[in-house]
């Protein structure tokens, strides 16, 4: 058993007869009244995201998990195939288990979280950022900007990202996988 002081991003807990992963949390200490923790929980079975508030000191049941590195091989419709980088065994996961599936390109190495009790895959953790090539974007017109003007660009995985006007087709860009946002032009 853990308490609210152990809450951190990525922690898997049992709540309402399901397993949830903590996506966001905020410890709040109001001027009047007891402290509490506001959380955003994502179900690892259904993918549904809920908001929940735990009072300070509330006991939560954490799930013991193991993480393993897997390489993304290919996708077939809603099914994504991965290979363990240690023993080369393969597993197939549904699209719901992935947070940013549209930024996943072949041969990308991800971390898969497994329930230690029954060895079931719970979720897929993307790397903090990925480098992808821009396959289509309109040319930026110089002079029609105010500040921080952006334009839509399609990357090699098919995802659409807003990028600055100086990015052209063929450029490689670094993308934050958590927000799905442009970070910088990749250094080659």
UniProtKB/TrEMBL annotation:
Protein name as it appears in the record: Elongation factor P
Gene3D superfamilies: 2.30.30.30, Nucleic acid-binding proteins (2.40.50.140)
Domain of life per record: Bacteria
Coiled-coil residue windows: none
Localisation per UniProt entry: Cytoplasm
Gene: efp
Keywords: Cytoplasm, Elongation factor, Protein biosynthesis
Organism, as annotated: Flagellimonas aurea
Occurrences of domain Elongation factor P C-terminal (ranges): 130-185
UniProt xrefs under SUPFAM superfamilies: Nucleic acid-binding proteins, Translation proteins SH3-like domain
Any one GO molecular function term: translation elongation factor activity
Record's keyword annotation contains Iron: no
Pathway where this protein functions: Protein biosynthesis; polypeptide chain elongation
Family designation: Belongs to the elongation factor P family.
Domain Translation elongation factor P/YeiP central: start-end pairs: 67-122
One Pfam family it belongs to: EFP
Protein role: Involved in peptide bond synthesis. Stimulates efficient translation and peptide-bond synthesis on native or reconstituted 70S ribosomes in vitro. Probably functions indirectly by altering the affinity of the ribosome for aminoacyl-tRNA, thus increasing their reactivity as acceptors for peptidyl transferase.
């Amino acid at each position: 058993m853990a308490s609210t002081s152990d809450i951190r991003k990525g922690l898997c807990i049992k709540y309402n007869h399901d397993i949830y992963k903590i996506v966001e949390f905020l410890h709040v200490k109001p001027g009047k009244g007891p402290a509490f923790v506001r959380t955003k929980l994502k179900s690892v079975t259904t993918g549904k995201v809920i908001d929940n508030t735990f009072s300070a000191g509330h006991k939560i049941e954490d799930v013991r998990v193991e993480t393993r590195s897997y390489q993304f091989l290919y996708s077939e419709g809603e099914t994504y195939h991965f290979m363990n980088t240690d023993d080369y065994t393969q597993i197939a996961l549904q699209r719901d288990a992935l947070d940013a599936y549209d930024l996943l390109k072949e041969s990308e190495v991800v971390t898969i979280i497994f329930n230690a009790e029954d060895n079931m895959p719970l979720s897929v953790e993307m790397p903090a950022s990925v480098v992808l090539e821009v396959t289509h974007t309109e040319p930026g017109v110089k002079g029609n900007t105010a500040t921080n003007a952006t334009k839509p660009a399609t990357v090699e995985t098919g995802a659409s990202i807003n990028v600055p006007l100086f990015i052209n087709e063929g450029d490689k860009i670094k993308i934050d996988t958590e927000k799905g946002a442009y970070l910088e032009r990749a250094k080659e």
